[in-house]
Design goal:
Shape of chain A: globular
Helix content of chain A: 25-40%
Strand content of chain A: 15-25%
Number of helices of chain A: 12
Number of domains of chain A: 3
Distance between the termini of chain B: 29 Å
Helix content of chain B: over 70%
Distance between the termini of chain A: 48 Å
Oligomer: heterodimer
Largest sheet of chain A: 5 strands, parallel
Structural class of chain A: alpha/beta
Largest sheet of chain B: none
Radius of gyration of chain B: 14 Å
Largest interface: A-B, 42 and 35 residues
Number of strands of chain A: 21
Structural class of chain B: mainly alpha
Chain lengths: ~400, ~45
């Protein structure tokens, strides 16, 4: 191990005694954990080099490295990429939470079971992302079960519609901005018992729009790859923290705890279930309010509100709207890019801001993939320029968007 | 922990009082930190 890393570790934990108090533990963030990736892991056989080899083969999505760990990749709201491993316990706990806490209302769960548990997820279906990775893991584990499909969010609109219409899911899940765009398509004729969104903030407007389109209950949850299921929605629309599996600390910008009912500047999470890659007092940039008022639903756990990740839906001259997650997933796949931000300047022009060790190669790849995607959407006159700027947070709110409209 | 015990634990964990949840959190935190310090150079007190 490098001397600098050793000094960092000593400094990090030198004051720890035998009695562990959460507040005494140091905070960590994504750049620190990724920079020290190999030494963070608790299994010395796993290294970033081996993970890079393993993830070169897209067929390994949903398969375990060394038959022990699932690998996921994420970028997150700070724009820095992360690699996250789940051990068996974390996978089992995630499955258990999905089974017992996903549904806000008992009647939706009953209807879902009655209608064959048919689940359709509209997600990016081509990478090491949590949603498609877990979905493929379960499909590989139980190949005889035909109750679950994943529809690639970036496929042709007609294909998405025809697959969903043919499958007729009892549960539809996906990013809220994408589902909102799907809701505008008249020929989409499905009647799910429940819609469960994730990955972005479910706004009141989108919730209503999806309710109107699908005629069923629409709910969400709060999760991230590093922490798993942080909070699940109840029948009152409150996000109850899964406090038996995760510790959530709302803090101000200096890391000091804020009280109940006070909006935080960020969140520290401690994932109690995953031991292969410990996330202890790990910083998320979400702003939340934790409530201690008793919830009428009967659950005793604390609940939270979140000011979530809200990238912009982009509009184009031919009337096409594109959900931010579609573009996000394309850019996240360009391995040469470590951070990015795509800014729409007009109907025909975009600016790409990137951080990369090889900016020219990274831009060439990104531009090619983006133009191909736009062409599929009937947008043929797009000009993308490489900006000299690095990705920027909004000067007023301080929030970061990967995909934003500035026109 | 097997899938079965994760199911049982999660089912019962959702019904705990706040006080019992905090005790469970503390127990699991101690297990996690001890394990991390024993097996992860990053989290180890002294290397």
């Amino acid at each position: 191990m490098q001397g600098r890393t050793v000094r960092f570790i000593r400094k990090l934990y030198e004051d720890l005694g035998e009695d562990i108090s959460l507040g005494d533990l140091p905070m960590v963030d994504k750049p620190a954990l990724m920079a020290n990736f190999d030494s963070v892991l608790t299994d010395r056989n796993i290294t970033m080099q081996r993970i890079n080899e393993f993830t070169k083969d897209i067929d390994n999505v949903g398969r375990m490295i060394d038959d022990k760990y699932l690998i996921f990749k994420t970028s997150g709201s700070t724009g820095n990429p992360a690699v996250v491993l789940y051990d068996k316990q974390m996978i089992d706990v995630s499955s258990a939470i999905a089974a017992f806490r996903t549904f806000a209302r008992r009647e939706d769960f009953k209807a879902f079971m009655k209608n064959g548990k048919k689940t359709a997820g509209v997600f990016a279906d081509h990478g090491f992302y949590l949603a498609c990775g877990m979905s493929r893991y379960l499909s590989l584990k139980m190949p005889e079960k035909k109750t679950k499909i994943t529809v690639d969010v970036n496929s042709d609109e007609d294909e998405i519609v025809s697959r969903l219409n043919a499958f007729q899911p009892a549960m539809l899940s996906g990013y809220p901005s994408n589902l909102a765009l799907l809701a505008d398509i008249d020929k989409l004729d499905i009647h799910p018992d429940v819609v469960i969104t994730g990955g972005e903030l479910l706004t009141r407007e989108i919730r209503q729009k999806l309710t109107d389109k699908f005629g069923c209950y629409v709910q969400t949850h709060y999760s991230c790859t590093e922490g798993g299921e942080i909070a699940c929605e109840c029948s009152e629309g409150h996000l109850h923290i899964n406090s038996d599996q995760i510790i959530v600390e709302p803090v101000d910008r200096d890391g000091r705890p804020v009280g109940f009912g006070v909006q935080s500047d960020k969140v520290l999470i401690t994932n109690l279930a995953n031991h292969i890659q410990p996330f202890i007092r790990y910083e998320l940039t979400d702003r939340i309010i934790v409530h201690d008022e008793r919830c009428p639903c009967g659950k005793s756990s604390y609940w939270l509100e979140i000011e979530g990740r809200t990238d912009d839906i982009l509009s184009f001259g031919n009337g096409v709207d594109i959900a931010p997650m579609s573009l996000y997933k394309i850019l996240e796949e360009v391995s040469e890019i470590s951070r990015f931000q795509l800014v729409q300047k007009s109907y025909e022009s975009m600016e790409l801001r990137i951080v990369s060790a090889d900016r020219e190669t990274a831009f060439e790849k990104a531009e090619r993939e983006l133009l191909e995607f736009f062409a599929q959407k009937g947008i043929h006159n797009m000009k993308i320029t490489l900006s000299d700027l690095t990705p920027q947070a909004d000067k007023i709110s301080g929030k970061f968007k990967h995909i934003l409209k500035d026109m | 922990m097997s899938l079965f015990s994760a199911m049982i634990s999660t089912f019962s964990g959702g019904k705990l009082t706040r006080e019992k949840t905090e005790k469970l959190q503390q127990k699991r935190l101690e297990e996690l930190v001890s394990f991390a310090r024993a097996n992860s150079p990053f989290y180890k007190k002294a290397v």
